Amino acid sequence: MMVTEQLNENSSTGPAKKGIELTVAIADDQQLFLKSLVALVNTFNNFRVIADALNGVDLIKKINSIAEPPEILLLDVNMPLMDGLATAKMISVKYPLIKMVALSIKDDDTTIIDMLKAGCCAYLLKDIHPDELERALLEIKNKGYYNADAANINYRRLIIHETIQKKCSAVRTRN
Q: Is the pLDDT of residue 149 over 60?
């Protein structure tokens, strides 16, 4: 029996969670990290992991096979078969209501900006403290997004970059 199934099975016999549960799916190619993250998120009040996968292809199959898609998706950026960027693009088209959160050890501008452009509402580094992860998920639940410092800085750079590109394009058009 998989950890997710055990936790979901145990949650019905364990102490009742208060309020409405927010459903979560997680995709990460590192099995130990994936199963640990599933166990952690299932301990947060009002959150329940309903699907987990080792890559984007498997994740999409699992989401397609469940009655209700998850409300939040924690998505590893680097995975085999279908990486986080391709998965995010596909999910944002097919399931636009899923709030996607990129997870990575990478904190470079290009990766962060690409994942935000692909539809992620947050970008979290994998060394995030569990309490901060719970705060991020709650903020996403309440506001629809989470602005961590890394994503915030890079998002501003993206806006500046796009603004400059538009101005340069406008100047070229006039000339």
A: no
